[in-house]
Each structure stands twice: as structure tokens, then as C-alpha cells.
Amino acid sequence: MALPLVLTNNYTYEIAILVGLNAIVCVGLNFLIGYAGQISLGHAGFYALGAYGSAVLSARYGVYPVISVPLAVGGVAMLAWLVGKPVLRLKGHYLAMATLGLGVIVSVVLANEDWLTGGPDGMTVPPLFITGEKAWYWAVGAVLLLTVWLAQNLIDSPRGRAWRALHGSEVAAAAVGIDAARHKLAAFVLSAAIAAFAGALTAHYAGFLTPSKASFLHSVELVTMVVFGGMGSTLGAVLGAAVLTTLPQLLTVFKEYEMALFGALLMLTMIFMPQGLVPTLEKLLAAAGRKAE
Amino acid sequence: MLLRAEKLSKHFGGVHALEGVSFEVAAGRVHSIIGPNGAGKTTLLNLLSGIYRPDQGKVFLGNESLTGKPQHRFAAAGIGRTFQNLQIFFNMSALENVMAGAWLHEACGLAAAALRLPRLARAEAEARRAARELLDYVGVGRWADSPSTGMPYGALKRLEIARALAARPKLLLLDEPAAGLNPTETREIDVLIRRIAEGGVTVVLVEHDMKLVMEVSDRVLVLDHGRRLAEGEPHAVSHDARVIEAYLGVEAC
Amino acid sequence: MIAQTLLSGLTAGAIYALVALGFAIIYNASHVINFAQGEFVMIGGMAAASLVETGLPLPLSILLSVGIAVLVGLVLEKLAIEPARGASVVTLIIITIGASILLRGLAALVWDKKIHPLPAFSGDAPIAIGTATLLPQTLWVLGTTVVVVALLWWFFNRTLTGKAILAVSVNRLAAELMGISVRRVLAVSFGLSAALGALAGILIAPISFTSWDVGVMLGLKGFAAAILGGLGSGPGAIAGGLALGLIEALGAGYLSSAYKDVFAFVLLLSALVFLPNGLAGRRVAERV
Asked: What is the DSSP string of A188-251?
């Protein structure tokens, strides 16, 4: 948070804000992937629905953005609840495919219903009451800190342990009375709501929105950030978002190679560092600590 | 009668794992289920803990029929269990495993947990203390804060028992608690089981180790090829001609 | 009108079936969902198109393209799948997704982002059958698919290598103990799937053209078809592919053409929710 003392130009603020917004989504997604051990390859769908929900309500129906944002988040949460119930009965590859399908459907609908969404060319979004990069930086930072605080509370609570138990062994979790379906749904809805919130904030910050926000590629980016940083670790989610948001900015020189490099990065990380950045670093530090003794 | 199984049957495709098995478990006693491999012992345990639905038959706990209910409802009714193939939460420490086991007594809302309301913080400290006590009770206290992945096999078997006890079950189903343990460790499990029973928990265990079964059980049920072969006191069952024949070669003591 | 729709549905379905077969073969051998399968389709079409553009005769271009795809498949297996054996489902999914992104990124560099046509195998002159018109290429697609399926049937049921692959898919440990080289089986599976994908890409390129990112949707739909038919089932993959193609064509023709791509996924979601094991999938009970 001390960064403003160091940063003076708007561009770096912009990056920091984008990192913060992605980090918020990732901390939420981590509840589903890292704690509860499920997978979602369609979370960009929830993100985009939150963004478009708030954008459409405020741009087309004149709802104040302060109100359209929570309305959109609530709407997405309800949708996630409805859709999650049947879908979360699936496991592994089947769940991955189902969430992928949902994300693609959202993205096609957003692109086709151009009377509402402006279609593939996008739509403009009215601003929130926050103006200026600095103000946004503080706002996003505050939301991120709040989300991280909530996440840390959850880990060391019975609910957090219930999620982690599901991840560890679903049958043993049920044997101690944990209702798998209910808890998976809770993680799904909560992470969807957080993604929607971040999406809505992004829409009002950027002032513009396109359906690519719901793409399969975006969903993959989000999952990568969580897994790259370290599943089950809130710090990992934030770090993953930080690294994978800033990296493309640093690599603009290699714009053409960006996609190939991203793909290579994904593969190399999962092959050589499958636990993710934070747990791997923790292990290295622990090993170094032992050597020093 | 605490637990009553009525004519339970379970088929898997063409395999009749269990056929018309009935039996009763009295509160406060230790019951063992024995039988040759493939007799249907684990299937029976899975039916009693709600992992499988019976194709026919019913399961009663007290007066309540649990038949057909989801697995977590069996746990909520007071049935706990351990598993033949360890189902430890390897992503958590030993302490967290046991704390997770106490879910039924610490359930809280998502919002309350996320906001860490004061009463929850106090409950957490209490839960931690109670979990440590349980770990000591089963004898694995020294691994409390270690990752469960670092624990030896014998300790893990006992951790599973501690986790099951954390739910404060009325009935504890143990699936081969002594499997893979050496004679000393098996004696320790024997002592533990008796302590658990003395504490008021009804125990049903599936075991191959005959010595353990004979020493610890009040009653023994023998299964063979999915059917009930014999049931009664250990001494009587071990001298039953049909049981000896089914086991051919196992020394009954 | 309906005959035309059914025909185009069948054609697309045949392509989906080939892609789905590729998924099924790799899944059977390694329990990995190869999200990069669609990129084999792309590589087949793009390599053929670019080779033809340099002046090479069509048959040679086709042969070389399939060869290139097979090579890519073998490299993928060696460099990405083998080192990650035993990793969790999530990890493996991300690795193959990464591979597909990498391949697409490379394709954009090696070739370009433009759309490329491939010459039809035996000309463009449409054949009239009653009210419908048939492109000769359609006959190539359908005919080749039938031949390929027959060859695969023969391969898996009559050759030792094919049976070895089936053995590994049923029980890897037992197969290894019987002396089957799992490494070789994996390599053959990836190579075979790559060839199938490339063939699909080459067959369809004259009709719907090819480009650097044509693999994304085709791969996803082929995957949907494989799951629809029951993951790991060859006949299921074929049935799933054909069903998908037909329903998609009918939906696009009579309901909404803007939502053409969505039909596949709606169908998939319905199947997953109501038929969790697919049309022909096996139910496996977990031992506790």
C-alpha cells in the first residue's frame, strides 16, 4: 500500500489497479479451486455477467452505478446458485467441461444480444463516483484488503476446514457430517459473486466493456493465476494475479510472442512447480533454513 | 437396540455383495464382523454408514430409519467411521484433521466465519484445545501440528479414529483398524478400542486379526459370500463348525 | 431443405467424430484430457494449406501435414505429458490447455492470422441429388471417415499394438506387468490422435477454410462430443460426434443461426446433468 509514495505516473497506477482487480477475483476463485478442490473453467462468465449487469442497468436503464453494482452481483449470485446445484454434482473432467460450456454460452449470448450489450464492438459504461487513478487505486486496494481479510478468517474457521476436508477426501468429509453438495455450492456462489463484483468495478473503472471478458481464454487466465500462485493460499492467489497481470505489460516488446510465451509459461509452471509459487518458495525457504542450522 | 440392520442386500452388476443380512447392535457393546475375503464386510459397513444405498432392506438407528438418506445424514445421526484405505485429509495437519472432524458441533454460518465474530474466535480456541486432547487420547499427540503427510502409517490409523471421535458419535464403525500394523501396534489398538467402548461409544469393527476380535468383542457376526453365517459370543462362534469350515485353516482360539 | 441441413450436419458430425476419437484414444491410454487436440486439427489444415501455397502437390502436402501433426503430438507427449505423470486432474488440464495456447501462439508466428483455403480434393463442381446439392468434398469427408473408422476397428481389435493400447486403458499396471511398454503405448496414442485430428482439419479445410485459431471451437466441440458419447468409448465418440453435428445443423437451420456454437454446449450440459456417464460410458465405483 506504500506504493503511492514511489509511483508517480498514471500508467503504474493503472497496472496496480488492474492487478488489484484480478487479485480480488483470484482470492474468491481460490475458495472454489484451492480450498474446496473444485474446478471452474468458466469463471470469466460470472465476471463478465457482473460487469455487463451493472453496465446495462446503469447505461440503459439509468440506475445509479452505486446501486447497479450490488444488483448485478446479487443477480449473478442467484444465477450461480441455480446453475451450481446440478453442475456441482459432476467431478473432475466433467465438471471442468460443464463450467467451460457455461462460460462459452455466456460469451456467445453477450456477443449476440447487441441490442442490450452492444455486441462484439462493446459498450460504454458510466463512471462510478470514484474519479481519478489515485482514488481508484485506494478503493481497489481497500476492497482487496477486505477480501483478503475475509479469506484469512475463513481458512481458520469451521467452514474453511469443511471446504478443505472436501478437497482432501469427499467421502471422509461426509463421514463427519459435512454436506458436500451444500458446501461446494457455497464456495461456487461466493466465488462467483466476488468475480461479479470485481467485473462490475472493472467495467465502471475502464468505462468500456467487450464480450471478450467472458471468453474461455480469460477463464483460463484466472485459473492460471490461482494455480500459478499456489492453490489454497490467499497470498498465492494475490501473487499469481500480480505476476500474470504485470508480465504481459512488461512483455509488450514481445507482443507477437505473447500467446506462445503465456502457453509455455503455463506448461512449465505446472510441470516443474505444480504446487504453485508460494508453496514452492515456502519449501525452498524451509529447506534453506534447515541447511543453515 | 442402538443399530438395527434389516435384510440388507446389495448388488453390483452381477455380483451379489450382500444378501438378506440382518443383525442388531446393542448400545455400549463391541461387535465384530468377520469373514473370509469377499464376504461383504466392507459393503455392510458402507451400507451402515450411508455410502451405499441398499437394494433391499433397511437401516435403523434407534427408532429412526436412515435408509436412503445421504451419507452426511448418517453422520449427523451419530454414526462415525474409519476407512480400510486411509481417507485422511492429507492437505491438513493432524490437528486440523481432528478439528474438521468436529464439524457437526462447530457448524457456523459463512458470514459469521468470514467476519470472525468474537464468539467464533473463542469457539476456535476451545475447538483447538479439544482436538489436542483427542490426539493425546489416541496417542498421536506429538504429531499435532505436523502435516499429516509426514506421519507414519500406524499413527495415521489412529488419527482417523481421533477424527471420527471428534464428531462424538454414538456408534463408531472401524474398518480394519489393525490392518498393516505389527503385533505391538495391534495390542495398542485393542486397548484403545476398549477405552472407547468404556467411554460409552458403541463400536462395530471389521477385522481379520482373530486374536484382536476374540479379545475385544462382546458379540461376533460372521459373513460368508454375502450372507450371515453365524452370530453370537466370540467363544461360541469360534467353535461353530460352519465358521471353522468357512475359514478353513485359520486357528480359532 | 431439410436434406441439405442434415447433410451439412452429418459432414460436421464426421469431423467432430474424428476429433472426439482422438480425445478418446488419448484419454484411454493416459487418463489425460488433451485440450490441445483441436490444435492438431489446425496444424493439419494450416500446414496443408501453406504447403500447397508453396507449390507442392495436394496429396504430398496432405501426407506431410499429417506427418507434422504426428511429430507435434509425439513431442507433446514426451515433453509435457510424461514429466507430469501422476499429477492431479487440475494440473494435467492446465498443462494441455497451456500446450494448446502455445501451439496457437506458434501457429500465428509460423504462418499468420489470415484465413486460408485448401483446394477441394476432386474439384468444386456441386453434384445435384434431388433438391439438395452435394459438394464432392463432402463425399470425401464422409467416405474418409468411414474408412478411418474401419481401419481403427481393425487396428484395435486385430493388431497387437492396438490391443496393447486397450489393455493399458483398462488396467495400466497389469498391462505393464504383462510386458507392454506403456511409454510406447502413450506415444502411439498421441501420434494416432494427432493424425486423426490433422486428417479432420485437412478434410474440412476446403469447405470451411482454416486459420490459426480454427482449433479452439473444433477442439471444444470434439471434446463435447467425446463426453456426450461417454469418455473413453470409441463408438460413443463417433455417435456423439454425429449427434452433435446433426443437432447443431438442425438448430442453426431452424432455431437460430447466431447461436450455432451454443447448441453443442447446451447439448453437452444437458447430457452431463442428465446422463452423467454419457451415452455409452462405463460406471466405475470408487473403492473405499
From this structure: HHHHHHHHHHHHHHHHHHHSEE-GGGGSHHHHHHHHHHHHHH-TT-HHHHHHHHHHHHHHHHHG
- Grid cell of C93 as nine digits: 488440464
| Residue C171, SS3 per DSSP | coil
Residue C264 and residue C219 in contact, taking contact as beta carbons nearer than 8 Å: no
C-alpha cell at B211: 486374536
Query: 3-state DSSP call for residue C85?
Result: coil
Note down pLDDT in tens along chain C; length 288 residues: 788 888 889 999 999 999 999 999 988 888 888 989 999 999 999 999 998 888 888 889 899 999 999 999 999 998 888 887 777 777 888 899 899 999 999 998 888 888 888 888 877 778 777 777 788 888 888 888 899 888 888 888 888 888 888 888 788 778 888 878 888 888 899 999 999 999 999 998 888 888 888 888 898 899 889 888 887 778 888 999 999 999 999 988 888 888 888 888 898 888 888 876 555 444 444 555
Q: Does B85 touch chain C (CB under 8 A)?
A: yes
- C215 within 8 A of C255, measured Cβ to Cβ: no
Question: For residue A259, how far is the Cα from the chain centroid?
Answer: 20
Note whether B250 and B42 are within 8 A (CB).
Answer: no
Nearest-Cα distance to chain A for B227, in Å, is: 26
Q: Do C90 and A231 touch (CB under 8 A)?
A: yes
Closest residue, chain A, to C222 (C-alpha): A97
A169 contacts on B by Cβ (under 8 Å): 87-89
B117 touching A (Cβ < 8 Å): no
Residue B169, CA distances (Å) to A143, A173, B50, B105, B200 in order: 42, 14, 15, 11, 10
CA distance C7 to A171: 48
Pairing of strands A123-124, A208-209: antiparallel
CB-CB contact of B220 with B34 (8 Å): yes
DSSP character for C286?
A: P
Place of cell 447443431: C248
Cβ-contact A106, A45 below 8 angstroms: yes
Could you give the CA distance from residue A273 to residue B227 in angstroms, rounded to a whole number? 51
Site from A147, A148, A159, A283 to mutate, B interface, most B CB atoms within 10 angstroms: A159
Chain B residues in contact with C285 by the CB 8 A cut-off are 12
User: In this complex, do A173 and B96 lie within 8 Å of one another by their Cβ atoms?
Assistant: no
What are chain A's partners, defined as 3 or more CB pairs within 8 angstroms? Answer: B, C
Residue A2 neighbours by CB distance under 10 Å: 6
Residue numbers in C near B42 (CB within 8 A): 288
Q: How many Å is the maximal CA-CA distance in chain A?
A: 68
Are A94 and A41 in contact by the 8 Å Cβ rule? The answer is: no
Cα-flanking dihedrals φ and ψ of residue B225, to 5°?
A: 50, 40
Main-chain phi, psi angles of A38, to 5 degrees: -100, 180
CB proximity B104 to A under 8 Å: yes
Say which of C98, C272, C286 has its CB closest to residue A267: C98
Cell numbers describing residue C39: 490444435
**Which of A97, A112, A263 has its CB closest to that of C268?**
A97
Quickly count: other Cβ atoms within 10 Å of residue C209's Cβ: 15
Report d(CA C106, CA C110) in Å as an integer.
6
- CB C19 within 8 Å of CB C221: yes
Residue A165: closest C-alpha in chain B: B89
Helix, strand, coil abundance in chain B, percent, nearest 5 = 45, 25, 35
The pTM for the full model equals: 0.90
